[in-house]
Amino acid sequence: MLDRSVLVLNKSWIPIAITTVKRSFSLVFQDHALIVHPDTYEMHDFETWLLDNSAVSDHATPDRDGWLRTANLLIRIPEVIVLGRYNGVPRRELVFSRRNIYRRDNFECQYCGTRPGLKHLSIDHVVPVSKNGQTTWENCVVACIRCNTRKGNRTPDQAQMPLRCRPGKPTWNDGVGQGESVPTSWARFVAADTRA
Questions:
Q1: Which of 40-49, 75-84, 185-194 has the lowest mean pLDDT?
Q2: Verdict on whether the full-model pTM lies above 0.70
Q3: For a disulfide at 6, which of 24, 48, 86, 130, Cβ 3.0-4.6 Å?
């Protein structure tokens, strides 16, 4: 529960990062951030969060419904926090990594469209490395092991296996929450995946 994702907004309410529940509570305790109520978008410090009836419960299910159990209370975990002083916008670029390629492609094989599970997925070079293909956003896609084996050391045209989606470099907003369940409270701040 403490490792769940929390959206971080700067002072101007622009999304700048994703952190954990643990780190977000730490920022709130240190008066560096405020919790944004997911329904009303009111801002709360920790004390006013505890006074809000929708943030404290006696009957919620901890761990399943987004609630954290303390010795005496069930406290609703934050979904969005806003920083009090920082107003910058960091470089908004996703790191090129296996995890982010999986997220970009929504954990789906880009040849057959199946979602066989992480253990049965691999990264395929559209133009094989042996044919001078590069390891870039534009040349790497998620493929199930079956399709990757079938395609082999050929291009999609040579293997007669068209791509479902042309690979490209995603923006930071495209990558936020891909492949995981994203709270509806993030929708106001994070653009939907617009990749074609």
A1: 185-194
A2: no
A3: 24
